[in-house]
Design goal:
The complex is a heterodimer of chains A (about 270) and B (about 190).
Chain A (H helix, E strand, L loop, with lengths): L3 H15 L8 H14 L5 H10 L1 H11 L10 H16 L4 E6 L5 H12 L6 E7 L2 H9 L1 E3 L3 H10 L10 E3 L3 E4 L7 E5 L13 E4 L8 H14 L5 E4 L14 E5 L4 E4 L2
Parallel strand pairs in A: 1-2, 1-7, 2-6, 7-8
Antiparallel strand pairs in A: 3-5, 4-5, 8-10, 9-10
Chain B lengths: L4 E6 L4 H9 L9 E5 L9 H7 L4 E4 L10 E4 L5 E4 L5 E4 L11 H12 L3 E5 L8 H9 L3 E5 L8 H9 L4 E3 L1 H11 L2
Parallel strand pairs in B: 1-2, 1-7, 2-4, 3-4, 7-8, 8-9
Antiparallel strand pairs in B: 5-6
Helix pairs in contact in B: 1-6, 3-4, 4-5
The structure holds S-adenosylmethionine (SAM).
């Protein structure tokens, strides 16, 4: 396994060789993910790992896909989605067209959850969602929209807790093991690769969701990402971050107003 | 070597022991304490409120990238793993459950040990699973101060027992002796 010092060297090599900059990621999390990757691929030390990454391009792509944390769920933090419907949706209604950015969308769970609620609140028709992630595997999986049935009991519970009125199953086509989201929920979503570290603004969006992504960055990179969101929002646009994340340490803190302190929903005011 | 942090891991049956330890801790002790207790997600519990009534520390649930400070007692939020960075800030993590748990005690023990090495004290209390055993072993190998609750005293002995089975050099102490050792070594 590798030490914190070897980790720094490894990230430096990756930056030089592949132009992916992980140097401002959380070191503590990186260390865990790299150990996990080495475990799965039976690599013993930093030398093994470096050798494989440099000499085998397929391994590198795999590495990117596996060191990021894609764990997500439908309607994660139901209280958040409830608040979003109550406090943000009424504002969105006033716009003729709505753009939403779901940044760090993982396998699409969050994006489709949002889309279901937009549909139920009659906002679906005028909304376009841009869902992005650094991992190409995540983007592919999101486009497919196929999920294991084992977790659906929990998803259904979440769905009702956030105020869902229909039957969640009706939004999916299922076989005994998997469920696929109905194609109508894919039509207004554009899934694409976007790296919050390196890529810039691509669209003005009235609502940005970036939840449980910033925890993987150090404060420096968090700040950079938050500035990017700030630039992508019009005045009165909304930003939602993860429940245990904070704007407090960022340079744009003063430019936002708290809409829901607990659920970490903010509005750009200047 | 003096510890820079005390990390307490517990599950079923650990809560009252935690309260006893905190209540009888020497008031002059102020190194940060981090508590990782398995609990249910999507529920707001009065856990922090009860802790606050029993300690001279200021109790706070961990927020991402918050600085770890003296005089503070931190709790792991439900549904997140807790990690420590080299600059002594916390990072939260929603990666896979470990030992069916998030927060996992193993994850926190291991992460703190990687940064603090011999300068940390890990305590593993009652619980009915195996979480914490692996992390406590790593901590011991890094020369940290490692303690498990007396298996005869623990309401559920599985957790301290698993730690003992994996590594037999931890100090096995009852609540009174855990309090004594902290009062002697942490001030
Ligand atoms: C834990 S998931 C969050 C999923 C969802 N937002 C939620 O809260 O459940 C974190 C996601 O952030 C993505 N991510 C990590 N670094 C990124 C970067 N630099 N740019 C864009 N996405 C990134 C990961 O690939 C992963 O899918």
């Amino acid at each position: 396994m590798i030490t914190l010092k070897e980790l720094d060297e490894l990230l430096f090599t990756i930056k030089k060789q592949f132009d992916y900059d992980f140097s401002d990621y959380s070191k503590a999390s990186m260390l865990r993910r790299i150990h996990r990757f080495m475990d799965i691929h039976a690599m013993k030390n930093a030398v093994d790992l470096k050798f494989e990454l440099i000499n085998n391009p397929a391994v590198f792509q795999n590495f990117i896909n596996e060191i990021v944390v894609n764990v997500s769920e439908f309607f994660r933090d139901p209280s958040f989605f409830k608040s979003l419907q109550q406090k943000v949706f009424p504002y969105l209604e006033s716009y003729p067209k709505i753009n939403i950015w779901s940044a760090g969308c993982s396998f699409g769970e969050e994006t489709y959850s949002l889309n279901i609620l937009l549909k139920e609140n009659n906002l679906y028709a005028k909304t376009r969602i841009y869902a992005t992630d650094i991992s190409s595997n995540a983007i592919e999986r999101s486009r497919k929209g196929i999920y294991d049935n084992t977790n659906f009991k929990e998803y259904t519970k979440n769905y009702y807790e956030c105020g869902g009125k229909e039957s969640l199953n009706d939004y999916f086509v299922s076989d005994p093991r998997h469920s696929m989201i109905h194609s109508e929920f894919k039509q207004n979503i554009l899934f694409s690769n976007h790296n919050l570290v390196a890529d810039g603004v691509f669209k003005e969006c009235q609502l940005i969701l970036c939840r449980n992504v910033l925890i993987y960055f150090n404060s420096n990179l968090q700040n950079k990402a938050l500035e990017l969101f700030y630039q992508s929002l019009p005045i009165h646009g909304f930003l939602a971050i993860g429940k245990k994340e904070s704007l407090r340490f960022s340079s744009v803190y003063e430019n936002f107003k708290e809409i829901d302190r607990e659920e970490k929903i903010y509005q750009k005011i200047k | 070597m003096k510890s820079q942090a005390i990390i307490i891991g517990g599950s079923a049956g650990a809560f009252n022991t935690i309260l006893s330890i905190l209540g009888q801790l020497d008031k002059r002790i102020n190194i940060p304490i981090v508590i990782v207790l398995h609990r249910l997600k999507n529920t707001t519990s009065s856990f922090e409120t009860i802790l606050q009534r029993n300690t001279h520390y200021t109790v706070k649930e961990i927020e991402d990238k918050e600085q770890m400070r003296n005089g503070m007692l931190y709790t792991a939020p439900a549904d997140y793993h807790v990690l420590l960075e080299e600059d002594y800030t916390f990072s939260l993590d929603v990666s896979e459950l470990v030992n069916f748990s998030r927060p996992s005690i193993d994850v926190t023990f291991e992460s703190f040990s990687a940064v603090l090495k011999e300068k940390c004290c890990g305590i593993l209390l009652s619980g009915s699973n195996h979480d914490g055993a692996k992390g406590l072993k790593i901590m011991a190998e890094n020369k940290g101060n490692t303690i498990i609750q007396d298996c005869n005293e623990a309401e559920f002995a599985n957790m301290p027992n698993a730690a003992k089975t994996l590594y037999d050099q931890h100090k096995e102490l009852n609540t009174t002796n855990i309090i004594n050792i902290l009062n002697n070594e942490c001030y």
